[in-house]
Amino acid sequence: MPQMAPISWLGLFFAFSVILLIFNCANYYSFLPQTPDSQEKSIFQTPMNWKW
Asked: What is its main location (predicted)?
């Protein structure tokens, strides 16, 4: 069974690393979060009365 030379392993490592980085960047920038509108929802706070 033939064995791979170390330069081939290094080339594969770099190729998969670049593919992983491109995939992660594409997934990061393809997600668009929805910004909440301040007019639709108002912040409602209930007073917390602690009775110790």
From this structure: mitochondrion
Tell me the C-alpha distance between 10 and 14, whole Å.
Answer: 6
Q: What is the rounded CA–CA span in Å between residue 45 and residue 35?
A: 21
Distance of alpha carbon 22 from alpha carbon 16, whole angstroms: 10
CA angle, 39 as apex, 48 and 37 as ends, to 5°?
Answer: 95
pTM across the whole model: 0.52
Residue 9 CB partners (closer than 8 Å, separation 6+)? none
Distance CA 23, CA 29 (A): 10
Look at residue 4 and tell me whether its pLDDT is greater than 80: no
